[in-house]
Please model this.
Amino acid sequence: MKTRSIPTMIVGVLVSMALDVSAQGLADARKLYDAGQYQQAVAAAQAAADDPRMLYLLAQSQQKLGQRDEARQRYSQLASRPETDPWHDIGQAAVAQLGNDAGGALAAANQAVEHGGNVAEAHYQRGLAFSAQQDMANAATAFEKATELDPNWADAHYYAGLAYSKVRRIDQMASHFNTFLRLAPQSPSRAEVQSIMRTLGGR
Model:
């Protein structure tokens, strides 16, 4: 009985180590993205683009660089995953968003949340879709959920803060913006966030 459990234990340790390495790689790539170093973020994410979270970050970085066609290709890679995989729907939603198809983006994002309610990017993409429709109350709720699932994701806090600012929920706005500023002190959006907080009295 003991000899049978050893391989299982080893597999468990190896899986845990792989997850730790993947999480660290994502954190490092996000730091580059958060600091506005999008080309470096692309390079970091490309090294582990078999991870859907890294592929998603890669596409986001390419969008920031104005490389819409390349970003669309990356999102399409996600959309090519099995239909029961939430990343399939996240990819479809992102492709629709790039094509200014707000209705299609929201429908796909809703499916992503249905298939993967524990995937922060599903809620984040849903927040983007609601924002495109100027439904800022629902956008705030979606981004809030993304931050609950991934508390260290600066971009999710940034968009949550923006959404809450639009619906004048100042306490929530300030909370997310302060977290964003702590997580991404070198962000190109820092001055914008500080200006919004001064204007709306969030500080």
